[in-house]
Structures are given as structure tokens and as C-alpha cells.
Amino acid sequence: MTGVIEARLKDLGVELPDAAAPAANYVPFHLSGNQLFVSGQLPLIAGGPDFKGKLGADIEIETAQQAARACAINILAQAKAALGDLDRITQILRLGAFVNSAPDFTDHPKVVNGASDFLVEVLGDKGRHTRFAVGVAALPLGVSVEIDALLAVE
Amino acid sequence: MTGVIEARLKDLGVELPDAAAPAANYVPFHLSGNQLFVSGQLPLIAGGPDFKGKLGADIEIETAQQAARACAINILAQAKAALGDLDRITQILRLGAFVNSAPDFTDHPKVVNGASDFLVEVLGDKGRHTRFAVGVAALPLGVSVEIDALLAVE
Amino acid sequence: MTGVIEARLKDLGVELPDAAAPAANYVPFHLSGNQLFVSGQLPLIAGGPDFKGKLGADIEIETAQQAARACAINILAQAKAALGDLDRITQILRLGAFVNSAPDFTDHPKVVNGASDFLVEVLGDKGRHTRFAVGVAALPLGVSVEIDALLAVE
What value of ipTM does the predicted structure carry? Predict the structure, then answer.
């Protein structure tokens, strides 16, 4: 039996990947009280595009929106691994979004909307979050977006 | 009737702007238990300067300090919208400060002091916060500073 | 009498420096409920190297790993000042790691491992944390790494 949120993902045609294992001495999530901390997620999903590139230089906004969406999918994959059931999410409290940017790029919010819109599509009001969106000089592996998250859970 | 903190703002000649509505599928704040999360605020206040530019290239530190102060004013405007009464703030726990920087700029703390000094001026010890201050490659709309916040409230 | 964690530091030959005082109107830490927030720490320890430079341009990964380790040492120094006894740490919940990067640098996780490995070496499973690792355009004083932290404590 799957829960309401997983049924919604299925309706949207989204299959959660296996939660990515960290490549070093850190963990992908920590559950502390009713807060679930999720490590910065890259937009890499097995079998998917690699979403590398710098906004304002070598990747389009529309493609980077898909990258942000992939980060959000990986956040949900980590939440599933942490919680067992995504219905335990009561609120996405906060996203921290880092966009790989050329110095003159200014449309970071549009890029990050790829993650924000997806989370609201899946979780409804529980998916509405606070966030920051900034442009960084470089990201691991050269990906275009990295997003970490804090969730309230029950 | 206004509270102690709003009277203090009035003494300082600061009028809180209307809390800016987010331009996308996210929210400007979340109240979770006794923690108030505030989305990254830009230094844009209706009728004010636009505070665009990159430190070390096309904006002076003194101007960017005013930009950081404007971010802090917008954080308080969001807190007012969330709490009704700013006297419910028990502590500014944390600021995350992103400064739009040329690669050789190194005076980020001075810039962010524009926000830190203002919050202590208004809130006293309750305004003293932890923070990070870093230099990013680019920011939304080309502004010079973006700051998010976490507040303890009652 | 020193606790278990301080004995472990001694075994490793690590002496905690005096907790650095902030240079402005902010505080190095806040204890709120069972959460300890630690301000962004630079890799500066009195008598040590200055760890300045930009990855991909003028500092090697191995040196920057030592810088990340120095940030982690300073985080523990702040925790000691906040808690009195490092044995009160129940979990390092989260590190936010900013690496001073040339635009084409992509090995941020390797750099930040210098902090992650150290914290696990000292604290065992209590040292395993969530984290993000991103490449920023510039950092205060030109240092190569800045890391902030959130700890669960008792």
C-alpha cells in the first residue's frame, strides 16, 4: 500500500529514484524531533540527463528548471528513505537553492521555480516553502543547481 | 496600539514597507513551533533605490551596507506580517547573508554589518544573531545583497 | 576533568583555540532549546597558516582540506564556549560549507571532506552530519573555506 503523496507522484508519472548515498563522511538526512534535515541534493538521477552547465553561459533556463525539479525529486527520495511514508511530511519548511551562475545572470528565481512548482504540485499547501535562491560561482561535478531542504514531519 | 519594537522603529524614522509577496510558488515565511523562517529578502523597498551592483566592481561598501539594512527591514516586515506584533520576537537566531561579489572582494562582513547593526539598534540583545557572510557570483535582479533569517518567537 | 570528546581531541593532538570573538554586532553562537547555532567559521587559528586562496586558481585541494578541518576545529571551539562540555553534543545536524572557487572548479565535496572526516574522527556517529558544499565567488579576508553549523545538544 502506498500513501496519498506516493499515489500523487504516480499520477504525475514520477518514479522516485533510490536515495543517493553520500560519497563521504556525511549523511543524506537527519531526523531531529519533528524536523528532517536533507543534505544538498544534486540534479543527478540514474538514467537521466546530467544537467551540467552554468546559467548565463552554457545551459538554458528551461533546462535548468528541469535540473531544479530533479533536485526536488531527490529531496523526496531522501525523505522517503528517512520516513518510510511521504504522508508523514507536514510541511516543506525551507529550501536553500544554489544556481551555478555566470556573473551577469539574474534569473535565479525562475530556475528555482522548477523545484518549487514541483513540490506544490505533489504536496499541495504542504509543499509551499520558504526559500533563498542565489547564484554561485561553481557547483560539485559542474551541475547547474544544488538544493538542500528542511521539512517538518510527524 | 503599537508595541515596543514598532515604537523603536518609529523613533529611528523607519517605516516598515508592506511585506513583499513572493513571485512564485513559495511563501515569505513559515511559523513552525517557536521558529519563524523568513525567505531570502532582497534590498528592494518601494520608492527606494534599487541597490543593484557587484561589490568590488560597481557598488561601494557604504551603499551596499544600506542594501543590507534594507534586507533587514524587509525581514522585519515579513515578521510583522507573520506575527502581528514584533514584540513576539524573542531572538534573531540566524542570518544567511549573500553578497554579490567580484572574485577579489573580501570585505563581506563590513557589508553585512549594515543589517546586523540595524537589527541590534532596533531589537537590542534580541537582535544579536549568528550569521554567515559569503560572496556569491550573482543575485536575483542583480541586487547587491540577499539575506534570509530564522527567528525565535513566542 | 575533561570529557570523552576532549580526551579524544587530545589523543588526536588537537588543541582547541580560544573561541574567536565576532568582529561586529553578531554572536558566535546561540543556544535555542536543544539546538546550537554556530556562525560561519573561517579557517583562521592563531599561529596557524592563513589558508587564503581560491580553489582552481591558487590553492591546492589538499591544503584546502586542512582549511576545512580548521573551520571544523573552530566550530568545536565555539561549541565548547557555548556548552562548557563537548560531551553535551548529541549530533552535528548540519554543516553549510562555502568553498572559494574559480568558475570551473568542481571538487568542492573533496575539500569539505576535510571538515567532515575530522568531525567523525572526533565525535564518531555523533559527528555525522547533513551538509551542502558549494563554490562561492569570494570569501571574507580571501580565505578558501567558510563553514557554519547546527548542532543538537543536551
Answer: 0.96
